[in-house]
Amino acid sequence: MAVRVVVADDQAVVRAGLRAVLAAAPDIEVVGEAGDGAVAAELAESLRPDVVLMDVRMPGTDGIEGTRRIRALREPGIRVLVVTTFDLDRHVYDALRAGASGFVLKDVEPEDLQVAVRTVHAGHELFAPSVTRRLVGSFVPADPAPDAGPTGTLTEREREVLGLVAAGLSNAEIAARLVLGGTTVKTHVSNLLTKLDLRDRVQLVVFAYEHGLVGAAGGEG
């Protein structure tokens, strides 16, 4: 079954280009286009696409608010992939914080854009953890105060796993670091996503930085 995509960008020529690139892939189908974040969210609600390719900077309702509205639909199967000009961009950080699952640059190669859509749809990480950490770290205070709020429901082991996820370690690397089985680590990550009401590992990284949990269990350094 084809990956169903909605393309959101305020420039018609850009939308046409993105549509052409995606339509060239036999396993990707563009089912709708939007000129701003509000229309993108409306199409997400009515069409239930797999991925919304969202320009982050648009007049009117931007991609950040559009992402937030899609997230509010409580449809975990709909994933947002942000398109941006600069990787270290406050708008990208805000979009990730709002619920986007990753981002690509506007000058991405056509084949890489197709791969990015497939990757996000499959629920996998889209970019190197180091990029995520560099981006998030640029816009979070150097020493954020630990917050007992939602973290109070976490076990000590879950806090350790969260810190290591934020440090960019894979499940296999976390298992080796904590001397746990791979299935056990996967369960801890799943529990973290459920307890914290987050979508994916990208969201876990953002959460960990904002709550001063990076470095737990020796995850940084």
TrEMBL record:
Keywords: DNA-binding, Phosphoprotein, Transcription, Transcription regulation
Modification type 4-aspartylphosphate: residues: 55
Residue intervals of the HTH luxR-type domain: 147-212
Residue ranges occupied by any Response regulatory domain in the UniProt entry: 4-121
InterPro entries referenced in this protein's UniProt entry, alphabetically: CheY-like_superfamily, NreC/VraR/RcsB-like_REC, Sig_transdc_resp-reg_C-effctor, Sig_transdc_resp-reg_receiver, Tscrpt_reg_LuxR_C, WalR-like
Pfam families reported for this sequence: GerE (PF00196), Response_reg (PF00072)
Protein name: Response regulator transcription factor
